[in-house]
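re: that chain from earlier
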Amino acid sequence: MGKKIYLCSPHMGGGEMKYVQEAFDSNWVAPLGPNVDGFERELCAATGAKHIAALSSGTAAIHLSLILLGVKPGDYVIGTSFTFSATVNPIAYLGATPVLVDSEADTWNMDPELLEEALKGLRSEGLKSEGQGKMPKAIVVAHLYGMPAKMKEIMAVADRYGIPVVEDAAEALGSEYMGRRVGCNSRFGILSFNGNKIITTSGGGALISDDAAMIERARFLATQARDPAPHYQHSEIGYNYRMSNVVAGVGRGQLEVLDLRVKQHREFNQWYRGLLKDVPGVTFQSEPSPDFHSNFWLTCIVIDPAVAGTDREKLRLAFEAANIESRPLWKPMHLQPVFAGCPAFVNGTSEKLFENGLCLPSGSNIDEEGRRRIEEVLRREFKV
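^ sequence. v structure.
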């Protein structure tokens, strides 16, 4: 058995140590410092964002965005159901109630028509019970596995109801929608630099906004909300959410290879498509039109067991037996025990994707020998 092949492991570009060494040489080994400032500037340049705050995680960025949007206990916040729990957890941090909305089949992201149905339902329920609709304070939309959501349609719905949108682009750095990098199409965007993302700082995230005052406010809250005084004074609750100068140095080096990593992930996706093009019952998460440009952080397939002759779990176990990591698609939040009882507007799409879908190993550092082992499993299981 060969060495373990991971789903997507960190891939260093070679330039990271220069910035990390500068942090050590200058003794800037704290939250804040020249690397943090540089990382924020360079992220703006890479994404087209006007303002960015570098933070300790993408989850922290979502949490701060909801605070900045005034979310309070008892409020509703709409969130994507088909996503990782970190998209929705910050809603609960604030004592608000997640309202979960299912996916459309084209991109696997939030369904704009179902979003409108949810908003109409919440408004009519409010009219019956309170005399006015209790409308959500925010909508949190995830771009799954790098695939942009249908932001034009989602923003049109959100604008009709006057509700701000937060883009969870944790998995989608480098992806584009209608010519703009994702995370820059709404009130706030968030990024993640966790160890398995397309670039990494080992752990970290960022908050994006066109509003300079909002980003300054986020930085204030992220540094324990310390008032401007010679002593430690705090007039409100803050958080330890700022990125360290050391890991920001890793991020600066990683940004130098972002475009290369996107190219490599997209090429890997094409390799899988070529390999499986004649296999009946296998479909890929795909770009619906030229408006969508995914980084294909992970290549994902759906297997119809009635046609393909195998199923998601058999393939996953075959990979596992070969010391290769693969993973079922996200279990929808409306099926998670922790969110049982939350309002949910579902259409069955995400449940089918979870039942039959698999994330294939997609790391840009998987070498030719690794691809050979992956191909061997796929050919054996699909009998091609």
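The longest strand covers residues 51-55.
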